[in-house]
Design goal:
Radius of gyration: 18 Å
Helix content: 25-40%
Shape: globular
Strand content: 15-25%
Number of strands: 10
Order of helices and strands: HHHHHEHEEEEEEHHEHEE
Largest sheet: 10 strands, mixed
């Protein structure tokens, strides 16, 4: 199984918004409506009450009549808008750095490197069964820190070249001030955190996230690591042209056009 981490892959932000004009138009509509209604658009609950958001979700879903559509995909739009407004902070965690963070605390203060961003995990290294009967590979995790001191995380699954769309797993909001205690949190009542019984897991060294606590733990350790080890962060430019054929599940993943930071095992 390939654990791809050479370059940043196409992100859910790029799937939600095909052009810069789309994200800018929605961000303007959200800001104007929120100001007129006295709603805080950085609050996920308030964001989901906006008519401009519901209209965007339903237009994007091509008239899908599912009444739960806004509940299921509204958080993805929320994080995508905040990601765009926050400078499109994209981090790619390499497999060696990911294993280091799973195995122990990196030390340091787990402060978010930006108010909003996306951590892309090594392809096919982390899995979850939270949103489907069958296990899904986790592409990455959005984070968004609100002015009120809360952090929202959203797991993204199902980014595969052989099918359209993405899967989303919203996690409960939590006070960002609690991040230091997540670093050494024991999230599971039985068995070690991140362990899995998936077929082939021992051979490929796979991990599974079964609880919100494990996601909080991984993100807190990532925050602490990039804050405490600047040498681990390599800034790189995004792709300028499409790269090959991504129509096959066996093809190399399509690269993101966004600039990104590759997180490696840097010297402390």
């Amino acid at each position: 199984m390939s654990l791809h981490d050479d370059y940043a892959r196409v992100t859910p932000f790029e799937i939600v918004f095909r052009t810069d004009e789309e994200v800018e138009a929605l961000a303007r509509a959200v800001a104007e409506e929120a100001a007129g209604r006295g709603v805080d658009p950085t609050d996920l609950g308030g964001f989901l009450t906006l008519g401009s958001v519901e209209a965007f979700v339903r237009n994007t879903a091509e008239a899908d009549p599912d009444p739960t559509l806004l509940h299921r995909y509204g958080p993805l739009v929320y994080h995508s808008v905040r990601f765009g407004e926050g400078g499109r902070e994209l981090y790619l965690l390499t497999s060696h750095a990911a294993r280091y963070l799973v195995e122990g605390s990196p030390g340091g203060e787990p402060g978010a490197p930006s108010n909003a961003g996306y951590l892309q995990l090594p392809q096919h290294l982390f899995w979850t069964r939270a949103a489907a009967d069958a296990p899904e590979s986790i592409d990455g995790v959005f984070w968004s820190v609100t002015p009120g001191g809360y952090v929202h995380f959203l797991l993204i699954t199902g980014l595969r070249p052989d099918r359209p769309g993405v899967g989303v797993v919203p996690l409960p909001e939590a006070p960002v001030a609690d991040a230091p205690r997540w670093v050494d949190l024991e999230a599971r009542e039985a068995g070690p955190d991140f362990s899995t019984d998936l077929p082939g897991a021992d051979i490929d060294g796979l991990y599974e996230i079964r609880s919100a606590g494990e996601a909080f733990k991984l993100m807190a350790r990532f925050f602490a690591y990039v804050g405490g080890v600047p040498a681990a962060v390599e800034r790189r430019g995004g792709a300028t042209e499409p790269d090959g054929d991504s129509s096959s599940a066996l093809a190399a993943p399509a690269p993101s056009r966004l600039d990104f930071a590759r997180v490696t095992l840097g010297a402390p």
